[in-house]
Amino acid sequence: MEYFFSESSENYRSWSPLTEEGYAEKLRLLREAATIPMERWRAPLVLAWLEIALGMPQYGSRCAENIKSGKVTKALNDDLSLN
């Protein structure tokens, strides 16, 4: 799945979480996530976490448009906890 690792968010939005191959790839990414700090996550890993681990695939396309890394995701979480 060459497009899965592309830096273009357009490619992330076109990837379907419903395909068996796509789901297997997201599960692989989630296993990888357990071994690295969130700040080092790339966009595909953030999407896998959001769609599979958190069960919120409806937000995948918006996430792909706005969040490019785990560092950004973590900063959003930190900002929310201050309020």
Helices and strands in order:
Layout: H1 9-14, H2 20-33, H3 43-53, H4 60-66, H5 70-82
Helix pairs in contact: 2-3
Characteristics of this structure?
single chain; 83 residues; mainly alpha; DNA polymerase, domain 1; disordered N terminus
Number of individual domains: 1
Average pLDDT over all residues: 76
Query: In the CATH hierarchy, what is the superfamily?
Result: Transcription Factor, Ets-1
**First-last Cα distance:** 40 Å
Order of helices and strands: HHHHH
Radius of gyration: 12 Å
> Approximately how much helix is present in the residues?
55-70%
CATH fold description: DNA polymerase, domain 1
Low-confidence stretches: 1-17
- Helix/strand-derived class? mainly alpha
| Portion in beta strands | under 5%
Main sheet summary: none
Count of individual helical segments: 5
Record field, number of beta strands: 0
Shape: globular
